[in-house]
Every structure is written in structure tokens, then in C-alpha cells.
Amino acid sequence: MTDPTDAERYPTLSDAGRALLRRMSEHPAAPVYRNRSGNRLLAEELPGLANFERETLSAPVGWRPGAPPDWIAPLLADTYRRVPHFRARGAAPARLDDVPTISRADLAHDIAAFVPDDVPLDRLINFRTTGTTGNPLLIASHPTVAARYLAFHKRALARFGVTLRAGAGEVGVVLLGDQRQCFTYVSVTPTMDEAGLAKINLHPGDWRDPADRARYLDALAPEVIAGDPISFATLLDLPVTLRPRALLSVAMMLTDGLRDRLERRFDCPVLDLYSMNEVGPIAVADRAAGGHVLLQPNLYVEIVDAAGRALPVGERGEVCVTGGFNFCLPLVRYRTGDTAALALTGGEPVLTGLSGRRPIRFRTGDGGWINNIDVSHALKPIATAQFGLHQSASGAVTLRLSPHAMADAPAAAAALRSVIGDVAITVEPIAGDDKILQYTSDLADSLSA
User: Fold this and answer.
1) AMP-dependent synthetase/ligase domain location, by residue (predicted)?
2) Which of 151-155, 253-257, 415-419, 440-444 has the lowest mean pLDDT?
3) Could you tell me the pLDDT band of residue 204, with boundaries at 50, 70 and 90?
4) Residue 247 covered by a domain
5) Which of 106, 18, 69, 124 is nearest to 297 (CA)?
6) 104, 137, 287, 332: most buried, per Cβ within 10 A?
């Protein structure tokens, strides 16, 4: 298979957009961009995206906790008709409560069984997510699905009084990572008049000079910076002078302490987004609302117990979702692995006490630190359905593998040692329930402050 051409990566690219791509990639302080990517959006798809954004920004999340909305019944009928995994179960149940829950492990086992029969394969895209809990996962998607994320980010930003203005010749968003291995690229956003987008890695290994990190960020002057708590903690240590209009924290739980430090430093709202690659942006934290306010009008959320039974309002359990905007991966009663309770605040469903995936770092043998994502990359070649890593207060680590993968224990220990260095490593099988917290540590400094 040949690599796509720039015409395939950026079908609507103008001369101004091409010049911006060149400026971002060829700046004297630019990082080593290790990958190439693009929006792949066709001109005829842009009006539909504009309509989707207008509807998303204006539509209420109209359902109430414990009362499935009217669109659930036709969704069930359609999903049971078009999606192989659900069709194999027989007729669609009349009630959502009667649908068995599914989990990340189900998707990881056979993602193709969850893709509708009539999704055109010629535009289908996929990407791999390591996550911080559960199995590595391949996600089925489409260029327009990826582009729809922006509508929910705009909805979240509008809640805090921010309306995006970046356009032609300007950089709209910089996505930050901080790990030894990171997918990095530059692109443009056609639905924002080709404003620039850059995914960069703050790890020093991706830069000719570590001091270039601050110089490059200041030169791009992005309107919004998105990242996770680990990359934002690194950003706080850089002598940048840029003033973004907002910071978006995604993928991991953001502590109040780190959010307060970021807001003081950059004098802008810092949004804590609850988002998953399988579902997209689910909710945004709002202290005034007392929790995470839901963002998707067509996503129904339940709180369920271990048996998959819906719990009453206010009772804590696992977040379980139905619906969404990814037509390549319709989800019905998908267990997220995160826990919360549901409340109704000001007429809006709110997730309270959300306990999600926490950013964990591990102390290396030489006293440094590595990101949990570096561990995921190191163990990627190991044929295990899932794994868990725990670091004790002494610095020793215990790696747990699926029982079927224990034959690869020596290779897994060697792969882990390649990133964590000279620490005591024990490898043992996962026992009991297959829902494990993937990364844990007893070290006080393992969490971003």
C-alpha cells in the first residue's frame, strides 16, 4: 500500500493553506515531525459539517436521567439490523434495559463486528488508541467523524465564553504530547478557513534544541492548546510568552491543583474534557454545575452496576453510553470503565464525582520519570489482551499480563526494562475480574500536581 499524496491528505488545500503548512513545518525552531496526516475532507462534505456544527451548538441535551429519550427505540432497531455484533443476538429488545452491556474488551476482540454493513470502506479510516485502562484498541472512523469533534469542543468553549476566531494564515490549535514516542504532524482545518493545526511532542528527543520548544510555541501562537495533564505540566516549565484563549485537557483526569496553576499562568479558561476515542467528547467540567456537563445531544448516559443494571439518580456506578456521532461505530450500552453518579442541575444532566483515567508516571532506575504512554508503546509487541503495571513505594514494579501471554513474560520484562531502566521487575498473570486499572503507583510524585 502506497502512502497517500498531499492531494489525498488535503483535498481542498488552497495556496494560503499550503503556505501555512510550510511555515509550521519549516520554521527554524520546528520539531522533527515524524508523521504526515491530513483532514481528508472533500469539498462536498463541508456544508454537512457546517450544518452539524450549527445543530450541535444549539440543540439541548434533552433527556432526563433514568428516562431514555424517544430516539433510543429507532436507534436500537437500526443497530440490530445493520451491525453484525447486534444482529447476531436476534431481534432488538423493546427496552434499553434489556440490552446486555458491551465493553472495550468486546471491541478489541473484533472491531469489524461493530461496524455497520453499509459504511463505505473507501473512506473508512482507523486509528489505534492505547488508553490508560483496558486493551489497546483499533477504532473505526471517517474523515467527517474526526471533523465533528470540533463542534463539541466549540460547545464546551462557548460554556466558558470563548468563541473561536482563528482563520486563514493563523494557527488554531496545537495538540501537545510528552512521551518518548508520539505521532506528530501538521495540518489545516477546512471548516475554520484552513486555520493551522499542529500535533507536537514536548519530549526533548523530538527537538534539535530543547529550548526550541518555547520558541516554536510562541511563533505559532495558537488560539487553543490541547493536551493531557502530563504535557501541560511540562508546558508550565517552559519559558513561553504565548497567550492562548483556552486550554483543553483531554484523555486523563485533570486535578484542580494543576488546573488552577494553568489558569494563573496563562490567564485563560482551562477546560477539563471527559473524552474517549470510542465516544468522542462526552462532558466538560463546570464547577458551577457541580460536575461534568454532558456535551452530546444524541448520546444517552446511564450509570450501571456490575451486572449492567441501570442505577437510580444519584447512585454511583460505571458510566455507560448509547448513541453518539460516529456512524462507523454505533454504540449501545457501552461501559466506559469510568465511574460517576448522574444528577440533574439546572435542567442539564451532569456527571458528578467522575473518576476517570488518571495520568501516571513511573520512576526510572536513574531517578527520572517516564509517561505511562511510553510503557504502552514499549509493551505494544507483547501479545497480551491487556496488562497492568504497578510501582511500589520502593520503586519496584509488578507487570501483570493476561494468563495466555505469560509465555512472553521474559520478553515483556525486557521491553519494560528498555524504558524504565534498572528497577526490580516482577511479571505475574492477571487474576480474577478482567476489568483492571492499567497503571497504578504508590509513589507520591506519580500523579501530576
Assistant:
1) 199-324
2) 253-257
3) very high
4) no
5) 69
6) 332
Task: Quote the pTM value.
Answer: 0.83
In a domain, 387, yes or no: yes
Residue 415 lies in a domain: yes
Query: In this structure, what C-alpha cell is assigned to residue 323?
Result: 448513541
Distance (Å, whole) CA 25 – CA 7: 17
In whole angstroms, how large is the CA radius of gyration of the chain? 22
Domain of residue 433: give its range: 361-446
Output the domain CATH number for residue 385: 3.30.300.30
Q: How far apart are CA 386 and CA 356, in angstroms?
A: 18
| Beta-carbon contacts of residue 228 (< 8 Å; ≥ 6 apart) | 176, 177, 249, 250, 251, 252, 359
Q: Has residue 54 got a pLDDT over 60? A: yes
SS3 363: strand
386: in domain: yes
Are the C-beta atoms of residues 148 and 297 closer than 8 Å to each other?
A: no
Is pLDDT above 70 for 213?
A: yes
